[in-house]
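Report of the visiting student (M.T.), summer placement. My assignment was to run the structure pipeline on a short list of targets and document each run. The first record concerns Integrase, catalytic region.
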Amino acid sequence: MGQKYSHLSLHERKLIFNWFHYRKMSIRKIGDLLSRSHTTISREVKRNESQYYVPTYYPHSAQRYYAMRMRRRVTKGRLSNEGTKQYVINKLKIGWTPELISGRLKLTGEEKYICHESIYQYIYKEAKELIIYLPRKHKRRRMKYPSRAYVAKTSLKTSILERPEEIDNRSIPGHWESDSIESKGRKLALNVVVERVTRMSHITKLSSKKALATKNALIKKLANHPNDFVCSVTYDNGSENAGHLKVNEKLDCKSYFCQAYHSWEKGAVEQVNGLIRRFLPKGTDFALVSHKRIGEIENILNSRPRKCLGYKTPFEIYNEICGALPS
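After the run finished, the structure tokens were exported:
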């Protein structure tokens, strides 16, 4: 009988990482120490390289990739239910992601449930013509890598580092994030403001990206909400936010600023910006986009279920908290 083969364990992967990354041992030496073929070690390192702090082999990500490959070994029928298939296709075409579709099915039971992974597999293996409806439209699926951590400098304005913990962890509503999206030629812009708990979003077409236009847009949109639903606004360090003190005075709220080059610290509005770009791609001239169309996009986003909201919509969560929509 031939030699019995067993898959590498997480413990062995940790040893490989330590010996290969820190001790700089050769592949053959590591194979000898683990009583494994050097080709097994070589294949393990090459197929599981991750882009973390530096591109190299990491044991925990390697274990995740291994688990993913094992799950893919068994091919199951995808979207065999005709009602579910049509539901998935219709929602993809209006901009919903597979995760939103799956989560909404689980919440409402409108059709037979299917997980988001099966939807992705259906698209990439059986219905590639639907790839164009995915957010990134990648021709091939890509693995997600951990993002790198950064050390931040303290902002000269009221820093986001001074923002209370209850705002950071989204335990109370009424705290907003503001950002701008530039038009082709950078003459016009959109102001986008998003509430951190409900993900309620407002979009305003601006005649310029100057501070006065941004200030007026924020006051006009946020003044429609109850006073206790506008407690703070978090900005980046762009010059268009120079009027934040006047916004604070008018709305009786506070302002916080992200650290320089740390736009990801206001991730809620950055995520919504990405959704808006699906309707208004980079290079769009906002002069050709009507205020009515901007309002339609805002309504679509606030009617779109979110995974972070338990697959409810911002409108639904806002109604639960405030009992009425802004006029």
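Confidence is low (pLDDT under 50) at residues 145-155. The first helix runs from residue 10 to 22. I thank the supervising group for their guidance throughout the placement.
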